[in-house]
């Protein structure tokens, strides 16, 4: 190639690069001017609308770099304060130097709590107090004489007419929920019109004392109280003012003796009561409760004669006897029943009452007495003509002197009802117990529609066969000792009775994950 031509091409190339660079600079300048021009003339309500979609941390950062966002930040509608949202990670903990690390961790927690409270205070003091839709406030201490004053001030700023979601969570110094209330929520704050717009109220670890003159909460649809000091009458005042309530959850509220739900709560569909230690009575006249969840000691339960309850989770001592005797008449429309027994002493009685609509039955037995006859669970099967799925977990049932190999007699077919709709049966913690084998055989002999029988020799839980988990749950040594006997019982007494139209699945302990010296 001619040298002059190469030189000319090189000159054109450098000239082109220079021109391109200048065009980029001009375009960037024009874009910057255009952005500054557009930004300065956007209406304030548009900036607020943009800010509405930003998380709290991002909105705060934007306010630091943009004058337009700064005014919008003072009206941010969603205020969520927790250690996570404000950038505080969990405190470091070393097991090798427990004493020194504990002291250092305590100092770190105090410093973190102080910094956290300062940030929350700064943000709320600079907020206009208008336009707040959501306030979620986690408080971690320190707890002293100024705590009440500090929290009152924050709530007064943010809880104004128009707020829709309010959550206050008080943690103890160890970051666990405090059992003793250390703060009295200012109920008058909800009586000035602010309570009218709240749809969700979530309180943890405080005292809540509504009075007879408590204001109307006509928009409240969801109420959650956990570790809250509130008496039965005070709860009644709150419920009577919440005519739109759809979900009610009460957990570890130790002052409640009775729960009385008025008939005017026609929208209430979900009721959960858990670990309220002093509770004696639950009486509901709400006509449309469809789901009921209860954990605790046995109480007097009245859900109304025309109850529409379709789903129940219930857990307390001797609950199997209670559920079989009481639920068919009190919940005639029940479709799903999940029972967890924390100590069954008396075998389930055979009764004429029926679960006419029950389709899904799950029974879990914890610390069931050796005198309990697990075969008596056929009472539930006989009473449920529409049952489709039955799951049994007797994971802590003692099996001493109950092996099928010690006494294989009396396994002949027991007359019973035909379970014409039962298709899926699963027994977890299956073992060589004679009564458990007898129950399984009875189900096989009376279930012509069976599609799948699953016998899990483990205690359930995670399994490495599921690709989502890398390791199985820990299996106790006693389970590994029992596993060969359970497999032999399945081969000898059960496998031959599984119809050709049904599938038998046996889940064994994983040798790789649960190898234990025996």
From TrEMBL:
Region spans: Disordered: 1-23
Domain F-box: 42-82
Pfam families found in the cross-reference section: F-box, LRR_At1g61320_AtMIF1
Protein name, UniProt field: F-box domain-containing protein
């Amino acid at each position: 190639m001619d040298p002059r031509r190469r030189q000319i091409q090189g000159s054109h190339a450098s000239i082109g690069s220079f021109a391109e660079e200048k065009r980029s600079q001009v375009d960037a300048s024009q874009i910057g001017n255009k952005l500054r021009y557009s930004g300065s003339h956007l209406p304030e309500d548009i900036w607020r609308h943009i800010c509405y979609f930003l998380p709290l941390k991002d909105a705060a950062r934007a306010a630091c770099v943009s004058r337009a966002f700064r005014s919008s930040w003072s009206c941010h509608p969603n205020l969520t304060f927790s250690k996570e949202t404000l950038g505080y990670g969990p405190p470091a903990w070393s097991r090798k130097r427990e004493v020194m690390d504990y002291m250092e961790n305590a100092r770190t927690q105090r410093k973190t709590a102080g910094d956290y409270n300062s940030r929350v205070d700064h943000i709320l003091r600079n907020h206009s107090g208008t336009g707040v839709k959501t306030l979620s406030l986690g408080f971690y201490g320190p707890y002293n004489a100024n705590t009440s004053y500090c929290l009152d001030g924050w709530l007064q700023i943010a809880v104004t007419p128009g707020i829709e979601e309010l959550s206050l969570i008080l943690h103890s110094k160890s970051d666990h929920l405090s059992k003793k209330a250390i703060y009295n929520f200012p109920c008058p704050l909800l009586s000035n019109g602010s309570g009218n717009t709240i749809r969700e109220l979530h309180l943890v670890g405080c005292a809540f004392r509504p009075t007879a003159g408590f204001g109307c909460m006509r928009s409240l649809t969801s109420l959650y109280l956990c570790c809250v000091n509130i008496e039965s009458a005070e709860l009644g005042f709150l419920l009577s003012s919440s005519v739109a309530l759809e979900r009610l959850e009460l957990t570890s509220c130790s002052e409640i003796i009775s729960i009385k739900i008025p008939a005017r709560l026609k929208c209430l569909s979900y009721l959960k009561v858990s670990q309220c230690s002093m509770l004696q009575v639950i009486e509901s006249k709400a006509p449309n409760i469809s789901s009921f969840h209860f954990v605790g000691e046995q109480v007097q339960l009245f859900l109304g004669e025309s109850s529409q309850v379709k789903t129940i989770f219930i857990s307390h001592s001797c609950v199997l006897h209670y559920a079989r005797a009481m639920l068919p008449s009190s919940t005639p429309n029940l479709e799903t029943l999940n029972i967890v027994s924390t100590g069954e002493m008396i075998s389930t009685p055979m009764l004429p009452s029926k679960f006419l609509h029950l389709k899904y039955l799950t029974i879990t037995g914890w610390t069931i007495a050796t005198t309990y006859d697990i075969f008596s669970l056929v009472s539930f099967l006989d009473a449920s003509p529409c049952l489709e799925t039955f799951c049994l977990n007797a994971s802590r049932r003692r099996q001493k002197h109950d092996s099928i190999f010690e006494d294989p007699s009396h396994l002949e077919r027991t007359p019973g009802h035909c379970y014409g709709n039962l298709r899926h049966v699963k027994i977890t913690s299956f073992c060589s117990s004679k009564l458990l084998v007898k129950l399984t055989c009875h189900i096989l002999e009376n279930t012509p529609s069976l599609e799948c029988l699953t016998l899990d020799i483990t205690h359930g839980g995670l399994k490495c066969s599921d690709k989502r988990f890398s390791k199985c749950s820990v299996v106790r040594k006693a389970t590994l000792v029992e596993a060969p006997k359970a497999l032999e019982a399945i081969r000898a007494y059960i496998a031959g009775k599984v119809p050709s139209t049904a599938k038998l699945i046996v889940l064994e302990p994983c040798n790789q994950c649960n190898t234990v010296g025996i």
